[in-house]
Amino acid sequence: MAHKGGVEVLNRSLKDGVTVLLAGDFKQTLPVVPKGTRTDEVKSCLKRSTLWPKINILKLSKNMRVHLGEEKFAGGFADLLLEIGNGDYPSFNEMVTIPENLCTVVTTVQDLISKIYPDIAHIHDKPMEWLCEQHVQYSTYSLQKMTKWGLSMIYC
Questions:
Q1: Which residues belong to any copy of the DNA helicase Pif1-like DEAD-box helicase domain (predicted)?
Q2: Taking the model in full, what pTM does it have?
Q3: N or C: which end of the chain has fewer CB within 10 A?
Q4: How far are the Cα atoms of 31, 43, 47, 104, 143 from residue 37, in angstroms, in the given order?
Q5: Residue 54 in contact with residue 26, Cβ under 8 Å?
């Protein structure tokens, strides 16, 4: 998200009536404030600007990326993300449980690596594009464990 100061400067520069289109999801990110606190970030977001009341918000009602994809659970996952983002999905102690049909649950790092890279023993035969297509969300702690285990599989 843009820092409100940047948008306000653009507004002063374009006082001759130019329409500006800002696109994005305000739920996803706050502007970065170097050495700032969370309060500083919230204060610098566009919603706190004097321009906010003048902004006309248009919402897309259909996620076209979901409909173009071939995965059968993509629509359900997109709906789940919207519910979570809007605060409409049930949570327990601020923790959200994602249904198992929308994710793959593993219990060990080895299982995780096997799911992401099913043929890791032959990784040297794979093109770089294959590696780029594999992805996962992880915590920093898990990344350290996975990297160590994954490298031992590649270089043994």
A1: 17-92
A2: 0.44
A3: C
A4: 11, 10, 17, 35, 26
A5: no
- For residue 17 the two structure tokens come to 């009536």
The single residue listed with the structure tokens 């920093």 is 140
State residue 89 phi and psi, 5-degree precision.
-95, 135
How far apart (Å, rounded) are the C-alpha atoms in residues 144 and 156?
18
pLDDT in tens, the chain (156 residues): 678 888 888 888 888 778 888 877 766 667 888 898 889 988 898 888 998 898 888 877 766 666 665 666 666 777 787 788 788 888 888 788 877 776 777 888 788 778 777 777 777 787 777 666 665 555 455 556 666 666 565 554
Task: State the Cα–Cα distance between residues 77 and 72, nearest whole angstrom.
Answer: 10
Q: DSSP assignment, residue 133?
A: H
- Which residues have C-beta within 8 Å of that of residue 119, sequence separation ≥ 6? 126
